[in-house]
Design goal:
Length: 116
């Protein structure tokens, strides 16, 4: 799954349009509820070196908010990382090119429900 796939999915499923809040980070898209304005996701393209990954170039990631126990459990897998620029107890970074789209959709839904 790619960055654009996530934003398209969220627009279609939740009728939420990504918000680009920072000129310095034009590829950082905030996903938040219309009603309460709480964030349920942050889609980013981040240099692999900033994520502690080998290689050059950027990695498409999605931060989602989850139960702390689930965050801790999932971080044992290479497909997931500690959240980038978010509270690492409650947020998890998903490596979009490493995780099945169905699982990504499920994690977005969990984050959406948790932040309502």
């Amino acid at each position: 799954m790619k960055y654009q796939d996530v934003t398209n999915y969220v627009i279609e499923k939740y009728h939420v349009h990504p918000e680009y809040l920072w000129k310095k980070y034009p590829s950082f898209a905030v996903l938040r509820h219309k009603e309460n304005r709480k964030w349920f996701g942050l889609v980013m393209q981040v240099e692999k070196s900033q994520l502690g990954l080998d290689g050059q170039g950027k990695e498409d990631i999605l931060d989602v908010k989850l139960d702390p126990k689930e965050v801790e459990f999932r971080q044992t897998s290479l497909e997931f990382l500690p959240a980038y620029h978010m509270n690492k107890t409650n947020w998890l970074a998903i490596r979009l090119n490493q995780v099945d789209p169905k699982q990504i959709h499920d994690l977005i839904e969990a984050s959406y429900q948790l932040t309502q």
